[in-house]
Specification:
It is a single chain. The protein has 541 residues and is of the alpha+beta class. It has 3 domains: 2-168, no CATH class; 175-357, no CATH class; 431-539, Immunoglobulin-like. Helix content is 27%, strand content 22%. It has 13 helices and 20 strands. The chain has helices at residues 2-24, 48-57, 128-136, 168-175, 227-238, 250-262, 312-316, 330-333, 339-357, 361-378, 387-392, 407-419, 536-539, and strands at 36-42, 63-69, 72-81, 96-99, 114-118, 145-152, 155-163, 182-185, 219-221, 277-281, 287-291, 431-436, 449-456, 462-468, 476-479, 481-483, 493-500, 507-515, 520-523, 532-535. The strands form 4 sheets. A 7-stranded mixed barrel has the order 1-2-3-4-5-7-6, surrounded by 4 helices. Strands 14, 15, 18, 19 and 20 form a 5-stranded antiparallel sheet that branches. Strands 9-8-10-11 form a 4-stranded antiparallel sheet. A hairpin with a 2-residue loop joins strand 2 and strand 3. Helix 1 (2-24) packs across helix 10 (361-378) and helix 6 (250-262) packs across helix 9. The radius of gyration is 25 Å and the shape is globular.
Length: 541
């Protein structure tokens, strides 16, 4: 009992510190990761939850509302219940969607016209969604998250997770544009007029369909949705990994799959129904994968589509190559057919594990996230789980039937299992001596080419340079040439590559991949966020 009280007191102190930080700020950011916000909804209906149920069930629109976000008021807004499996009739504490521009065109809060609130269903820790998004953001584009207290007509409904909607603000920040096709895998209401040729129960698996309209039964699309483009993506995927990179950012797809696997996110493409992810067709004509609906990550949902639900030990020892031979999961099986893509995928798993789990960083962040919300959760009369369950949820399985594993209980063993897995023990080549040749001293002729040299150990068989001249572009690939001048230690090789500059002020972003017989490695390791950068004008100084 004293230990439990000490934990509670520690969480309260963290929350109080966060609250003081909130009030010390001038204008809280909507997705501030260190404070808890406040949203107040005011509607005319006393029985507002019943009316929202009716609108949700019968496909109605939105309920008129005034919405106050962190003290700023917006009239002419609209609200509704959202969610599929996360929605339950008769509850006030359901996921919410708020449209600030419902009856006031152009109305927004810090650039956001839509606010989506997750009720953290089947998550006694209340942090699965936020923790997953924070870790994933280190490797690929995704939504921001935060916590907020929600009131409706001055009644406290509870603490919710505020998840950035996949709309203009998010798309432009991550991809430089927002005018492309957006597809969400999974539909709330399957259309009744689909072609008779459509396959049944394939969800968002991206299996090829001969009629592009069939994809409308498994994906929701925005007004710009290019259904034939989605069909062409699936067609190329069905033929193998060779040509699919023309229409898919394959590296980000491999990151998404690696993140799903290591954090046992089976309510996703990697699980039973291939749902809860987005595809965005960017300005380069490539589909970009985006995670979504992560409250069931870390083993809360346990079905892979192969047999019954997994037990704790099976979740801890989930095969990193799950679905590698499954023809009904082509995004996994077709990409991993390629030996290089398989090495990249496994390298991503190894990196995620080392940078977040083996070092215990996720434990510290889990405690911080819970500390922010312990007080508002304790005041939440509609909460699904008790405060005791919340406080035990990191290290203990919660629920006799649902058996939701503790996050640390799951990941402490899983991280060690993956570290020692035969597919992940091959040592990759280390990249060193990365240089770009500058103009020699007293040389009159300016440099007009990026001449890159690098070394790698452990018997590399090849090195590759991925480069681009603008952050919004896709990377292009150039194989590096082996430098046979000799004089290097055993197992070490030197490589060179030349990339023509577009002009005297050209700036280039790039990263290097070294491949040996069993693995690949990246330089810099954080290339997804901070690749190497070089300016031609600097080389000519």
């Amino acid at each position: 009992m004293p230990k439990q009280l000490n934990m509670k007191n520690s969480l309260i102190l963290i929350f109080l510190f966060a609250t003081l930080h909130l009030y010390a700020q001038s204008g809280r950011q909507l997705f501030d990761s260190k404070t808890v916000g406040e949203i107040r909804i005011r509607v005319d209906a006393r029985n507002w939850s019943d009316q929202l149920d009716s609108m949700r069930i019968y496909g109605g629109g939105l309920m008129d509302a005034t919405v106050i976000i962190d003290g700023k008021s917006y009239q002419g807004a609209g609200v509704r219940f959202r969610g599929d499996k996360s929605y339950t009739t008769g509850l006030k504490r359901n996921p919410f969607q708020i449209k600030l521009d419902y009856k006031t065109p152009g109305q927004q809060h810090q650039g956001y016209s839509t606010v989506k609130l997750s009720a953290a269903v089947r998550d006694p820790s209340m942090i699965r969604e936020a923790l997953f998004h924070e870790i994933a953001a280190r490797y690929m584009p995704g939504s921001k998250t935060g916590f907020t207290k929600l009131f409706v007509n001055d009644e406290y409904i509870g603490v919710f997770i505020n998840v950035e909607s996949i709309e203009k603000q998010m798309l432009e920040r991550n991809f430089g544009n927002s005018g492309g096709s957006v597809f969400k895998a999974g539909v709330d209401n399957r259309p009744g007029n689909l072609p008779a040729s459509c396959k049944l129960n394939i969800y968002g698996s991206l299996e090829y369909e001969s009629n592009a309209d069939c994809y409308k039964g498994n994906f929701e699309g925005n007004s710009e949705a290019d259904w034939k483009g989605l069909q062409e993506f699936a067609r190329l995927l069905s033929q193998g990994p060779k040509d699919v990179e023309k229409v898919l950012d394959t590296d980000r797809a491999l990151w998404m799959l690696a993140l799903n696997n290591i954090m046992v996110n089976l309510n996703s493409y990697s699980g039973n129904h291939s749902v809860n992810y987005y595809l965005y067709k960017d300005g380069n004509g490539k589909f970009q994968p985006i995670h979504w609906d992560l409250n069931l990550a870390f083993g809360s949902y346990k079905n892979t589509g192969e047999g019954s639900d997994l037990e704790l030990t099976q979740l801890q020892e989930l095969d990193p190559l799950l679905h590698a031979d499954n023809p009904y999961k082509p995004l996994i099986s077709q990409l991993l057919k390629d030996p290089y893509y398989k090495k990249v995928y496994l390298a991503h798993i190894r990196q995620i594990n080392e940078e977040n789990f083996l070092n215990g960083a996720y434990e510290k962040r889990s405690a911080e996230l819970q500390g922010m919300i312990v007080v508002p959760l304790s005041e939440d009369k509609y909460k699904t789980y008790s405060l005791d369950d919340f406080q035990s949820s990191l290290r203990t399985t919660i629920g006799k039937k649902s058996k939701i594993p503790g996050i640390i209980e799951l990941m402490s063993r899983r991280s060690k299992y993956l570290k020692n897995h035969p597919e992940l023990t091959t040592l990759p080549s280390s990249v060193s001596e990365v240089k770009v040749q500058a103009r020699a001293k007293f040389e009159n002729q300016p440099v007009n080419t990026f001449n890159i040299t690098a070394r790698a150990d452990r018997f590399p068989k090849r090195m590759l340079v991925y480069y681009r001249f603008d952050h919004s572009q896709s990377y292009s690939l150039v194989p590096m040439n082996e430098d046979n001048t000799g004089g290097l230690p055993s197992g070490v090789k030197s490589f060179t590559a030349s990339i023509e500059a577009k002009g005297p002020d050209t700036e280039m972003e790039y990263y290097i991949v070294a491949e040996n017989a069993g693995s690949v490695n990246f330089a810099p390791a954080g290339y997804t966020r901070e690749p190497y950068r070089v300016k031609l004008s600097d080389l000519n100084k």
